[in-house]
Design goal:
198 residues; alpha/beta; five-stranded parallel beta sheet; 5 strands; cytoplasm; transferase; ATP-binding
């Protein structure tokens, strides 16, 4: 089973690539989605987050106040490390379960792990291929402001909090250049699928 890691900086077009690979038949395991799942109300992960960071990181309905937690840990490497120590093992376990389930259902399937924090959390895993979605930081900043409604200062903070492009590109087996138009990104993704498909 080809197990592919798909990563990229914020606003790099990673989700567009994942959607296209899914259209071709790949099984997409979304790391951000898994984070939300393992942090659902009543979960051991959410209980541990509340114990570590205080009950005020929960909403009145018992859900995680993501924005509140983010504002508390953002820019504090120690707090980020404590949060990651709670969340990452649970996400690792759940992603491994999803990979196994996909393999059991179809041993020939292509599984793509859509994971923004590959370098930070999963770089040493045995990926058959690491695919990096890449666009220059200035273009990604424009996208964050124009498409996601961030202020320029917020966009800069988000970009600077991530691993730099050089480190991400250094682990790439395949780079999909997303600086062009959508058709160009999809054409590169289609070419990748031809390489991956059984």
């Amino acid at each position: 089973m080809p197990l592919i890691a798909l990563t990229g900086g914020i606003a790099s077009g990673k989700s567009t690539i994942a959607r296209r690979l899914a259209e071709h038949g790949a099984v997409i395991v979304d790391a951000d989605g898994l984070v939300r799942e393992v942090q659902r109300p009543g979960s051991p992960v959410l209980d541990a987050i509340a114990a570590e960071f205080g009950q005020d990181v929960l909403t009145s309905t018992g859900e995680l106040d993501r924005a509140g937690l983010a504002s508390r840990v953002f820019g504090d490497p120690d707090a980020v490390g404590r949060l990651n120590a709670i969340v990452h093992p649970a996400v690792r376990d759940e992603s491994a379960r999803r990979f196994r389930a996909a393999l059991d259902a179809d041993p020939g399937t292509v599984v793509v792990y859509d994971v923004p924090l590959l370098l930070e959390a999963r770089a040493e895993d045995p990926w058959e291929l690491v695919v990096v979605a890449h666009a220059p930081a200035a273009l990604r900043r424009e996208r964050l402001v124009a498409l996601r409604g961030m202020t320029p200062a917020d966009a800069d903070a988000r970009l600077s909090a991530q691993v730099d492009d050089e480190r991400r590109l250094a682990i790439a087996d395949v780079v999909i250049d997303t600086a062009g138009d959508m058709a160009d990104t999809l054409a590169q993704t289609d070419a990748l699928w031809v390489r991956l498909a059984p």
